[in-house]
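sorry for the late reply, my laptop died twice this morning and i had to redo everyting from scratch. anyway the thing you sent over, i finally got around to it. pasting the sequence first so we're on the same page, its 282 residues, then the predicted structure underneath. double check i copied it right bc i was rushing
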Amino acid sequence: MNTWIIYVGGKSSTNYVIGKKGGVWGLKNLKPHSELKEVKSGDEIIFVHNITRPKKLFPDSIPGFPRVKNAEHFKFQGVVEEIVKGKISKGFYESSETVWPDNTYPYRFNFEIESIEKNVLFTINKHGDDFIKKTLLSFHSKGDVAKIQLENNTSSSKDELTLDANSKELSSLEGKITYRIAKEVVRDAKLALKKKANHLLEHGKYFCQVCDFSFYDFYGDQYDYIECHHINPLSETGETETQLSDLILLCANCHRVVHRSTECMTIEKLMMLVGKHKTIIK
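ok and here's the structure:
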């Protein structure tokens, strides 16, 4: 089973909506290097739609963005309108049946949507270096597929997991980038962006609303950073109307601590752990 990524720009929004509704994607031309013919039933598909670069989050201007060179894929970061994940229901085929109003796009496959995530922060830190690279490749190929291999899960016996404590040469090959597709709780990234923007407007920098740590003060303004946390976890509330007051900004350390166990820690307990006795900043 393979996983395929397709980037769809804002100018193709109409055809993208039609394709999602009908569960079909197609290309007008099939280039010699295209891997579209390798798309098979049962494969995973990821659509990345319409990347932008909000100045509040990405103050550095990139001329010509989103068109950047493949060798400079690290510049291809921003916020994408949505990421759609699904399963290929019919692999590569050719058809002249009318689907889109502007052209035939005869080289096709069909898919079923499994999850949609709106307004997603699209960075190397969040998605990985190879994910960004492959999305950019699809961008330059005008909606053609780019492949990412999923990791094969293998189980090990106790004997295989036993290490010789006396050995002085223990090593393992690491660093390979792999991806897994899974259903997830859908969050609206615009709320988190709004929460951060309001905080930035009021204070001029980010800082943790529990421990007060500031990336800005410690590392410098170019590394100003913060994470957004739901005070009442969505995994517990289910689908609900979220207000900005339901969110709190946490440094990476505090955010990791509250999610350290299967049951999310309360903010009150976190504040107690760091020796704080104050109300949550709204």
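The chain has nine helices and eight strands.
thats about all i looked at so far, will dig more tmrw
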